[in-house]
Automatic annotation (TrEMBL):
This is Phosphoacetylglucosamine mutase. GO terms for biological process: carbohydrate metabolic process; hemopoiesis; protein N-linked glycosylation; protein O-linked glycosylation; spermatogenesis; UDP-N-acetylglucosamine biosynthetic process. Its cofactor is Mg(2+). One of its GO terms (molecular function) is phosphoacetylglucosamine mutase activity. The gene is Pgm3.
Length: 527
């Protein structure tokens, strides 16, 4: 490593003065023009992490559902997981180092982590469709190269596709081929096999309108479509040819405003879904004959998936423990349904997929979803091996195991993935002969409201109990408790966002008016 060269090169990617940067829930995220130095340094850090793990590391340039003017970056660890927490700290330190100190901080991290310099480094890079992403990706490449690392830039990818690529490259191809063709092939083959078993396959093929948030998901879904179109037709809306990324559309807009995206006309009972800007989230919805909008969010997706898996396991006849992981944002009705009707254990973790993913790994089969539609299912090695064995049997049990084998392949187990989740959902609905209306009717969501509050310093709020209780500032939790007591079936909590400079307030209650009013009152208590 040529320290002088790194110092010189760092000066070309100068840190804007007077700002502090933090590797948050989803990496670094802010206005794109402030990110150049971070991109270069994340290239350096990814190369370092690659040497330390002796594996390929991923770098994704995206700000997901945030406005087009923003951008962001996160690192992907060897098995396609989020970066390890100690390395998030290194990332924060490196991002905040003065330009002249970058090389010194790198050496310090290397010493702390016992990185062997002669080791090779290999980094794969993906980016979303933001206008700023191409140049920022170039800075990542320069960072990797400045450290003597090699890279492969996939160009435009959805975030979950990059996670998939990293996992494939580090598992000797056992997870799939590390190409877009490999990704499409794996998912489409599993989907077609699964839907062959659907009894109502004589019906005309199902069609779904997909709002792609004007993001990268549109490009990738269009590329993949011919592979599943004999069974499922997709009509792409907000495909990026006209509108602005995430503007009045996409999963985050639909979930937080609880209304359809701009540009999507819904006929009564028509099946629709929305991806977010980097296609790692999905929500479904429809309008009923009275024109009322019905949102089917991550919670209901988790219910559909876990009930299907539970039924399939009964047919397979194996005892595997299955659990569902949610966050405090999960609708109270979903938690009650899972625990009381489905008798599935539910766990609550802090917000941020890394926490959910980690918890879900503790089960033989762990299903995790954030209410906003980010989630997937994880299957332990033992489950995968056993199911593969059973799938060879020619009896009923073997048939169910074969089905489960395809379900396992259809999930992107490295990250929540809108394309993969959509295919899983469509396969389950086809196999169970369910309409979205029947799916929606499994339980009724409690009316809820989420609001953002701008405060001088959001970090004065700290929380415990998976973010459901505020510890500081003193008196805040007592004030929330007093407000919650005024409403029926109510619950509320506050937490500082990890991706925006706001405090988020969540409230639910027996009516929309009560939920709105409780959210409003709690927001006032936050000031
Ligand atoms: P923050 O800003 O920390 O609330 C948001 C989402 C998370 C997660 C991250 C990453 C909510 C309430 N929060 O985090 O679930 O998806 O963005 O994109 O939806
Ligand atoms: Zn996203």
């Amino acid at each position: 490593m040529d320290l002088d060269a790194i110092t010189k090169h760092s000066a070309l990617h100068a840190k804007p003065p007077g700002l502090t940067f933090h590797y948050g829930t989803a990496g670094f995220r802010m206005k794109a023009e402030l990110l150049d130095h971070i991109m270069f340094r994340m290239g350096l850090l990814a190369a370092l992490r690659s040497k330390q793990t002796n594996a390929t590391i991923g770098v994704m340039v995206t700000a997901s559902h945030n406005p087009e003017e923003d951008n962001g970056v996160k690192l992907v660890d060897p098995l396609g997981e989020m970066l390890a927490p100690t390395w998030e700290e290194h990332a924060t330190r490196l991002a905040n180092a003065e330009d002249g100190d970058v090389a010194r901080v790198l050496v310090d991290i290397m010493e702390k982590e016992a990185v062997e310099l002669p080791q090779d480094a290999f980094v794969v890079i993906g980016r979303d469709t933001r206008p700023s992403s191409e140049n920022l990706g170039q800075s990542v490449r320069e960072g990797v190269a400045a450290f003597g690392g090699q890279f492969h830039d996939y160009g435009l990818l959805t975030t979950p596709q990059l996670h998939y690529m990293v996992c494939c490259r580090n598992t000797g191809g056992r997870y799939g081929k590390a190409t877009l063709d490999g990704y499409y092939h794996k998912l489409a083959a599993a989907f077609l096999e699964l839907t062959k078993q659907a009894s109502c396959s004589g019906d005309e093929n199902v069609s779904v309108k997909v709002d792609c948030a004007n993001g990268v998901g549109a490009l990738k879904l269009k590329e993949m479509e011919p592979r599943f179109s004999p069974v499922l037709s997709v009509q792409l809306i907000n495909d990026g040819t006209k509108g602005k990324l995430n503007h009045l559309c996409g999963a985050d807009f639909v979930k937080s405003h609880q209304k359809p995206p701009q540009g999507l006309e819904m006929k009564p009972n028509e099946r629709c879904c929305s991806f977010d800007g980097d296609a790692d989230r999905i929500v479904y919805y429809y309008c009923d004959v009275d024109g009322a909008f019905h949102l089917i969010d991550g919670d209901k997706i988790a219910v559909l998936i876990s009930s299907f898996l539970k039924e399939l396991l009964l047919e397979v006849g194996e005892i595997f423990n299955i659990g569902v992981v949610q966050t405090a944002y999960a609708n109270g009705s979903s938690t009650r349904y899972l625990e009381e009707v489905m008798k599935v254990p539910v766990h609550c973790t802090k917000t941020g997929v890394k926490h959910l993913h980690h918890k879900a790994q503790e089960f033989d089969i762990g299903v995790y979803f954030e209410a906003n539609g980010h989630g997937t299912a994880l299957f332990s090695k033992a489950v995968e091996v056993k199911i593969k064995q059973l799938a060879k049997l020619e009896d009923k049990k073997g048939k169910a195991a074969k089905m489960l084998e395809n379900v396992i392949d259809l999930f992107n187990q490295t990250a929540g993935d809108a394309i993969s989740d959509m295919l899983v959902i469509e396969a389950i609905l086809a196999l169970k002969g369910l309409t979205v209306q029947q799916w929606d009717a499994l339980y009724s969501d409690l009316p809820n409201r989420q609001v953002k509050v701008k405060v001088a310093d959001r970090r004065v709020i700290s929380t415990t109990d998976a973010e459901r209780q505020a510890v500081t500032p003193p008196g805040l939790q007592a004030a929330i408790n007093n407000l919650v007591r005024k409403y029926r079936l109510s619950r509320a909590f506050v937490r500082p966002s990890g991706t925006e400079d706001v405090v988020r307030v969540y409230a639910e209650a027996d009516s929309q008016e009560s939920a709105d009013s409780l959210a409003h009152e709690v927001s006032l208590a936050v000031f």
